[in-house]
Every structure is written in C-alpha cells, then in structure tokens.
Specification:
The chain is an all-alpha fold and 475 residues long. The chain contains 18 helices and five strands. The protein has a three-stranded antiparallel beta sheet with strand order 1-4-3.
Length: 475
Amino acid sequence: MSAMGPNYIALAVPFFFLLIGIELLVARRRGRQVYRLGDALSDLGCGITQQILAVFFNAALLAAYVWLYRHARVVDLGRWPAAAWPVAFVGVDFIYYWWHRTSHRVNLFWAAHAVHHQSEDYNLAVALRQAVLTPFTSLPFSLPMAMLGIPPLVYVAAESFSTLYQFWIHTELVGRLGPFEKILNTPSHHRVHHARNAAYIDRNYGAVLIVWDRLFGTYAQERETPIYGLTRPLHSFNSLWAQLGPIWELGGWARRAPRLRDRLRVWLAPPERVFDWARDGVGPPHKLALDAPKFDVTMSGPLRGYLIINFALAVAATFLLMLWGASLPRPTLVAGAALVLLAMLSIGGLVEARGWARPLEVARVALTAAGFRSPLRQQVMATTVKKLRLKHRRLIAPHQSHPHHLLGVLTVPQIAPRLGVSPYWLYHRINTGRIKVQRDPTTGRAVFPDHPRTLELLTHLRAGRLAHVSFAKEE
C-alpha cells in the first residue's frame, strides 16, 4: 500500500496499541478479564505475519488494480472527485460485504479468512488477527472498482478507512448504540458475527454499514450471550500455524478425495459440508459444544515478561518495515522480515512449551544479535551507492531558448502512473533527498527528463537496487 500513497494502517499502529491499553484499563476497572496473554500474542502475531509478508506482495496486488484502471475503466470518476469519493466509500463497503459472505460460504475463501475467527476471546487485539491470504481472495472483488474509474489513491483511502473503522467494533465493553444500530456496523453487531452460537453463524457480514445485511437477509440482533471462536477450534497459539493450519487441513481432505471432481468440490463446498465419500474422519469433525472450556496454557511469570518484551521488539520492527520496507535494499528487507517471522514462530512455541522452542529461541537471539553487530546493512548501502556512482548517468533535460521553460520533461503526476506508484511515493523521496530533481523556474515544480533511462533508474530505486538517484543539473 505504501507504493500507492501513505500507509494508513502503518500510521495507525501506535493508536491501535494505545486503544488496546485503554481497553485493558477499562476492563480492569469493571472487574472483567477480556484478554489472555497466549491468545493476545497469537492475535497480534497473525497481524504481524500478514503485514510482514504484505510488504512483498501489496505493490503487485495494487499494480493489478492500477493496470485495470488505466486500460479497462468504463468511466473516469477521477474527473469528478465529488462523485468519486462517495462512490468509492459505498462501493468498497458493498464489495466487502460480498467478499466477506463468500469467505464464509466457500471453503477456499474460508481457509484464508478463518484465521480472523480463531480466537476464543473478543477484544481489540482480535481486530488485528488478520490472514496472509485474504488480500489475494479479496482482489477479484476489488477490481470492478477500477473498471468504474475509481482512482487508485481514492480506492486505497476508502479501503483503509473501512479497515480502520472495523478495529473499534472488536470489543465486549461497548453496548448497544441506539439508532446507530440501524445503519452502522457496531460492536454489538460484530459480536454476533464472531460468535459460534447456532443462531449467529454466518450473520452480520458488513464492514462499516449494516444495511447490506438487512437488505440481503443475513442480519441478526445480539440477544443471547455470544460464545466466540470456531466450531472446530485450532487449539494452538502459534500464529504461523494459525495461518497455515486451515489450508493444510483443506489440502489434506482434497488429497484423499477419490476423483478430480471431488477434489474440486472440497475447495468450493461450504465449510460445514460432509462428503459422501469421506471415511475415517475425512471432512469436518463434530462441532465444539458451546460450554466447552477455552484452549489455554499456563506460563510462569518470568516467561510472560520475556515474551512481552520480545514481542514488543518484534512489533517495533514490524512497524518500521511497514513504513519504510519499500525503500530498503532487498537483502536487508528479506533479512529483517525473516527475523520477525522467526520471532513469531519461536514465541508461539514458547507459549505452548514445545520442545523445539527453546533451542530455536537461542538461535533466533543469536542471529538477531549477529545481524545488529555485522556491517551487512552498511555494506549493502555502500555497494549500492558505489554502483550508482559507477553506472548512473545524470540526465539533464535540454532547455528551450526561453530561459524559464524546460523542454522534454515530465512532472510527478505524469511519471507516477508509468512507474506504478502514487505521486506521494515520489514526493516523499524527493523531500527526503533520495531523488534529486530539477525545478521548473516558473512554477517550482519537480520535473524529470522525458527519457527511457529515467523510468529505468526510478524502477531500480523502487526495487531497492539503488540508494538514491539524481536528475539535478550539474553545477
């Protein structure tokens, strides 16, 4: 997302944790326990895993939207911002409803989305329990917005608003909200959605608006006390297994199917489907009773403290990679992401007291310490700058006879679509000195030479193969 403009989700991370802290304090004052450490670490670990891996694929997913917007849009709502913004917000909410509903009714989609529903608690940390694969399953639903002519930046802003709105509705501490319940999705409505009570299953799919559920017959009001989690629970606090488990289970069923068409049915059937050919427990097991105890573990005080400290460090690293990962050299980015994912695996193992967890943690700490001590990061940057000095040709656009006009140049809004990024991406790197440009003496605007080499150099910068580029006139 950062390639298309500000990463609104990354910028909101400090506020997420501030609100989680407030929720903890309010719950304590009310004498309620809404958090368990193992479950909370698993929730946040799933979110970290998704965001770390998204650094590598988000730009590609958005590039598909940009390409369709540029080549297949039916109308161009970007010319009418007064229409583009409301259409984007309502459209994003509408397609979210249908993606969400599909994600509960088709096994392939459910295997991705089930990650969000695995927690047996319901709190703000659960809002951050996100699946790695859901950006891929939601992409086909998003592409019609490009064909409607919603500009990429407007779409990203609308989608980010929808995601941010849904954070606050994951709480048990806010009751019914009166007339707002008629139109908006609220904590009460979403508690119903996360519950595994028979009356609540597959209800209340909305994101910001609840009107789609009312229109299409999937609305349910909160009446009985919700019991959270899956009817077939994960029974693990390992955030990496949480991501892989549903797909692994579904793949196992498909492998044991007798015919090709049966294998396809496994992926496309609803989650509760039991197949006629199933034998020896193949297919969905029996549902968990509502009064069954929650999965939990016991941890010593020192271990809890150790986990909290190390998890906080992993959160900080993730926050930095979300903000600046796109501008890091690829080796540094991959190394940083690998260390964070290794921390998630190790922490999950320590929570569950797995035999392999302590040796893995020792190895992880050693690798992390070695990474900070070694000059790898400086070597990568020095090598990049050296290559830049050897290979980079400075490109200066020729001047017309008029001293205040540049011939054969491109402005930021003109070159951004060719590069597949937002203008903000370029402006940020210009302002931080990573891209040096000429300025039009009349308007003061940044300009680039209209030359194939310009796009080539900027592409290398975006991929992390160059530390900076210069199109400024030699003095």
